[in-house]
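User: Can you predict the 3D structure for this chain?
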Amino acid sequence: MKKVILSLALISAGLFSSYACTAKASSNAASASTETTAAAPSEEAAADDKAAEGAIKHIDAAYLRKYIWDYKEEPSKFVFKGSRPAILDFYADWCGPCRKLSPKLEAIAKKYAGKIDVYKIDVDKEAGLANIFGVKSIPMCLFIPMQGTPIQTVGDLTPDQIEETIKQIYSDAK
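Assistant: Here is the predicted structure, written as structure tokens:
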């Protein structure tokens, strides 16, 4: 009997922890306004981006509108403005699965430096962006090809899952 109760308690704890990121992300997105105001990145910041090639870039709404997709100019369809495929990682510091995914994405950023850009968007700081992209659960990654429809994934991906998705957006992926 004790084994049954212990098993049920462990299963309940596991289910609760897997939904914890979903519940908090949803409540944060619901309470935020649809647009986050942020200062436009300076030319110095753009130069830092080039110097940090192979590193993950933490971005805000202004950066996204200027370099990835201007959702105000093209609200009905995704028009990618980047010069190479990209990965957007929607995350939060408090999210366990997000923390597990982060080093995998750092490795991908280094492996595909100069070929694929990897960006992180904190859903707590950029709740408006999370709302625009329909983020209901985190981590949520958006794999963006140069042409075509972005691919959305949810959860802590394995390195193999990340590589398989990259193959779909980047024809030169090994």
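The first helix runs from residue 2 to 31. The two ends are 52 Å apart (CA to CA).
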